[in-house]
Amino acid sequence: MEYPSLSEIDKIYALQQKNTAEIKQLPASKREQLLRKLLTKIKEAENEIQAALYQDFHKSALESTITEILAVEMELKHIIKNIGKWTKDKSVGWSAMFTNVKAYLHYEPKGHVLIITPWNYPFQLPLVHLAACIAAGNTAILKLSEFSPHTNRIVKKILQEVFPEDHVAVLEGEVKETTHLLSLRFDHIHFTGSPAVGKIIMEAASKNLTDITLELGGKSPAVLDRNINVRRVVQNLIWAKFVNAGQTCIAPDYVLVPRQLKSEIEQVFREELREAFGRDAINSPDYARIINKKQFDRLVEALTDAKHLGAQVISGGATDEKELYIEPTVIGQVAMTNSLMTEEIFGPIFPIVYYSQIDEAIKFINDREKPLALYVFSNDGIFNKHVIRYTSAGSTCINDALIQIMHPKLPFGGVNNSGIGQSTGWYGFRAFSHERAVADAKGFPLSKMFWFPYSERTHKFVQ
Ligand code: NAD
């Protein structure tokens, strides 16, 4: 693959630096126009986008539409609908001492932004974050992952049809190119990827005290209560875990199940997996593949190692290297030292961990890094509240999974190891804006009470 040379990167950077002041002045109406054009181009390119995602992931056309194209279109429509309101100054309200002060927040574009994205949703992630960045009035360099070349090509083509390079530039590159980009001074860096690389981004940003958003990953648990409809919950989990072959940042990573449900849930998983993907999932038109050999090898090694350490495959387990195929796999009795339990799985392997008391499940979660998402399934509201109250997570969905990310009014983000800052909708717009505090004194300046020389009057006032 041809990546830009470092001097080409410098040229694009300089071009955008020069243009940033002008772009910051674009009125909301002009930004909205550009986003409308982007929406039209995406609609026109739907077939090409689906084809590219099939080439990168063997992803079905319908899944590509649901999880990638519609997600972007919905976000764009939401931004277009609200941009006029979001860009307006916002009063912070009245305060007794400040009756003659108009206090408000002014939404100032941050300026020049670097957006770095991963390979797992190579259409949705770059465009959703870029849309907010443009709405907020910034210039952007978008650095795509090196592992989704087909989708990258269409992302680049669409964006080049809408934006000149001194407004939005799309680059591909590996560590060398990204490291170079990180040595340049940006006003905001928005990174989506692993916690390990997130730390590299944060360190690089600290050199210039650049503001950051880190959308990271981790092990997101699903916690089940006894009081559930097992079949419905299993169907729900199968979709959430095996969509995009488990390569979803908020996919349930493992599931905590009450010991009493052991034989029932294992049986239902076998039945429902057969129902979802047929006798042989390799022939299912709905089931995606692993992105590349490196990820495939990592997952197969983890699975093999788990089996050596005594894990029991409840369903699935087949692999095909030529196809980069891993069967939807549910596994029990995984050793806690196995990488399936120590690292984010990010693939179609689903460990079940049994617990006796809910506090044991909560301790299990809290002994690990704070997850990006936590799912809780129970018909008992007190159970759900209890789990939320005693754990921490970027987001939570009760009695469903993944849909929290689709809600236009909820922010998306992690907490500590799973992320810093928030994205999407209003929160995405806000992340790419500087919320400037403005106090506009009308008439009599409040500070006159403290002016020099300090006097009896000042003294009385502070008492
Ligand atoms: P990654 O961290 O390896 O790579 C992400 C980006 O960083 C890529 O563009 C890559 O080129 C770049 N990069 C890689 N190594 C780098 C280095 N040493 N220095 C500078 N840049 C570097 O992640 P990935 O494998 O592409 O994606 C998987 C991870 O992303 C998972 O942890 C997943 O949970 C997470 N993720 C999070 C979200 C979210 O919204 N929170 C969404 C999707 C994926």
From TrEMBL:
Pfam families: Aldedh (PF00171)
InterPro entries for the chain: Ald_DH/histidinol_DH (IPR016161), Ald_DH_C (IPR016163), Ald_DH_CS_CYS (IPR016160), Ald_DH_CS_GLU (IPR029510), Ald_DH_N (IPR016162), Aldehyde_DH_dom (IPR015590), Aldehyde_DH_NAD(P) (IPR012394)
Keywords: Coiled coil, NAD, Oxidoreductase
Coiled-coil spans in chain: 28-55
Catalytic residue list: 215
Domain Aldehyde dehydrogenase: 8-437
Similarity comment: Belongs to the aldehyde dehydrogenase family.
Name of the featured protein: Aldehyde dehydrogenase
Organism placement in taxonomy: Bacteria, Pseudomonadati, Bacteroidota, Sphingobacteriia, Sphingobacteriales
